[in-house]
């Protein structure tokens, strides 16, 4: 089959690789019909995530048709499914608490050591996202093996377009969980850092959950425009001081809840970001954490911090004093996708959440490397790239 493989920093290629096979009774094989490139994939593309190996197949946002099932899969051939990016068993202690991204059985035994050492405990597996998260082949491919297929994938009713439901695999539940983690109360003012897909779904979700005002922050005019389209007020961090603008917009109090949807590759000419950049490039640091520092600094006293953004390692200059003295709470994590799927599928079907606005580019899988380059180099206009195996080039 054909698949998008990783070969190093800014080097991804579509190649012919072995077809996946059913390895365990709970597996299913999916013929991929749509798969998206995620902001998280850019961290791999930029070489920011350790434990990648040449030839790894990327992709964790995908959907398709069931073509083969193991003896214990509950799926049927011909069904269309969206697959969560988190690989979870559905039966362990954490899955029992619906904390699927903390599943104890998502990682093969031989891949558990790194996360055990780095984080204290191994996490769930992830598709196409380094060997630390299981070394699973991803879904930017013609076919993909889906472990635990009896617990993860959600069956999509006939006649519903891929474009409408594809984002259930990751970014829609991630934006939703980000808003939920912000503990929104009616009347709240919520600030969201980053108007990428995750930030834009967090904006929509926060408003649906009763936020009175949402303030979205970025520097790309088109992405800020999309946030305004959903009713957010916006701050361009290249044109104003974010902290001062937020104080001014909230009567000097600060936002009730802040959401960091940026993550470990923050942009911007800020002192801490420049220092982080130097540390990362000289292997003295791992993450550029400007947005979470700024979010904590700007949040009102007693407020809530939600961090869907991905961080990988260790940071310094963390405003622990402000965090403690202001009595903030922080909630974060890889999304427990399986927990949110039924409710969000219903919301999409009822047109309560708009998903298709985001797609700026649809490309054949064969042009996936171009898709990565576009999404990486032209973030203003390229808001989401969807790859479709078999699509004829435009
Ligand atoms: N928790 C999860 O399960 C989960 C799932 C998916 C994605 N993520 C993470 O969420 C984050 C966002 O994902 P995405 O797909 O929207 O990514 P993206 O790269 O498309 O968007 C990030 C946006 O942040 C903006 N930004 C950069 N620096 C900023 C700053 N200093 N202030 C304000 N905005 C700034 C960028 O201009 C960009 O528009 C990433 O870190 C991604 O890895 C987490
Ligand atoms: Zn993703
Ligand atoms: Zn589990």
Can you offer a commentary on this structure?
It contains 13 helices and 18 strands. The chain has helices at residues 39-45, 93-96, 112-119, 162-165, 171-181, 197-208, 221-229, 242-249, 271-281, 290-298, 320-325, 337-349, 368-377, and strands at residues 2-8, 11-16, 28-36, 56-57, 61-69, 80-83, 86-87, 125-126, 143-146, 154-155, 189-193, 213-218, 233-236, 257-260, 304-307, 329-332, 361-364, 385-388. Strand 17 (361-364), helix 13 and strand 18 form a beta-alpha-beta unit. The model has no long low-confidence stretch (mean pLDDT 95).
Radius of gyration: 20 Å
Give the overall shape, derived from the CA principal axes: globular
Helicity range: 25-40%
Beginning-to-end CA distance, first to last residue: 22 Å
What is the count of β-strands?
A: 18
Bound molecules: nicotinamide-adenine-dinucleotide, zinc ion
Mean pLDDT: 95
What is the percentage of strand-forming residues? 15-25%
- Uncertain regions spanning at least 5 consecutive residues: none
Q: How many H/I helices? A: 13
Structural class: alpha/beta
The major sheet is characterized as: 7 strands, mixed
List the helices and strands and how they pair.
Elements: E1 2-8, E2 11-16, E3 28-36, H1 39-45, E4 56-57, E5 61-69, E6 80-83, E7 86-87, H2 93-96, H3 112-119, E8 125-126, E9 143-146, E10 154-155, H4 162-165, H5 171-181, E11 189-193, H6 197-208, E12 213-218, H7 221-229, E13 233-236, H8 242-249, E14 257-260, H9 271-281, H10 290-298, E15 304-307, H11 320-325, E16 329-332, H12 337-349, E17 361-364, H13 368-377, E18 385-388
Parallel strand pairs: 11-12, 11-14, 12-13, 14-15, 15-16, 17-18
Antiparallel strand pairs: 1-2, 1-4, 3-5, 3-9, 3-18, 5-6, 6-10, 7-8
Helix pairs in contact: 5-6, 5-12
The chain binds nicotinamide-adenine-dinucleotide (NAD) and zinc ion (ZN) (2 copies).
């Amino acid at each position: 089959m054909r698949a998008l493989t990783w070969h190093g920093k800014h080097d991804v290629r579509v190649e012919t690789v072995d077809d996946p096979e059913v390895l365990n009774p709970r597996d299913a094989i999916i013929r991929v019909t749509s798969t998206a490139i995620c902001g998280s994939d850019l961290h791999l593309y930029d070489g920011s995530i350790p434990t990648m190996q040449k030839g790894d197949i990327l992709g964790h946002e995908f959907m398709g048709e069931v073509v083969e099932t193991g003896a214990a899969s509950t799926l049927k051939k011909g069904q269309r499914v969206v697959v969560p990016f988190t690989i979870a068993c559905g039966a362990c202690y954490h899955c029992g608490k619906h904390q699927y991204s903390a599943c104890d059985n998502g990682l093969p035994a031989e891949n558990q050591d790194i996360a055990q050492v780095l984080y204290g405990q191994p996490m769930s597996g992830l598709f196409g996202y380094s060997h630390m998260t299981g070394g699973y082949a991803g879904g930017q491919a013609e076919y993909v093996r889906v472990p635990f297929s009896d617990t993860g994938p959600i069956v999509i009713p006939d006649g519903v377009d891929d474009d409408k439901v594809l984002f259930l695999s990751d970014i829609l539940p991630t934006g939703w969980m980000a808003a939920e983690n912000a503990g929104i109360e009616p009347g709240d003012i919520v600030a969201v850092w980053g108007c990428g897909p995750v930030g834009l779904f967090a904006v929509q979700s926060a408003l649906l959950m009763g936020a009175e005002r949402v303030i979205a922050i970025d520097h790309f005019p088109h992405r800020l425009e999309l946030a305004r389209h959903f009713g957010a007020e916006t701050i361009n961090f290249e044109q104003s001081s974010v902290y001062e603008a937020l104080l001014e917009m909230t009567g000097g109090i600060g936002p009730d809840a802040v959401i960091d949807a940026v993550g470990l590759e923050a942009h911007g000419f800020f002192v801490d970001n420049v220092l982080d950049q130097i540390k990362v490039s000289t292997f003295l640091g791992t993450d550029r954490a400007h947005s979470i520092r700024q979010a904590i600094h700007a949040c009102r006293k007693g407020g809530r911090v939600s961090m869907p953004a991905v961080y990988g390692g260790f940071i310094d200059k963390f405003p622990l004093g402000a965090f403690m003295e202001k009595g903030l709470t922080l909630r974060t994590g890889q999304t427990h996708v399986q927990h949110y799927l039924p409710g969000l599928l219903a919301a999409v079907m009822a047109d309560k959440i708009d998903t298709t606005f985001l797609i700026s580019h649809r490309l054949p899988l064969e042009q996936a490397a171009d898709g990565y380059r576009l999404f990486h180099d032209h973030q203003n206009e390229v808001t989401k790239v969807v790859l479709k195996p078999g699509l004829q080039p435009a």
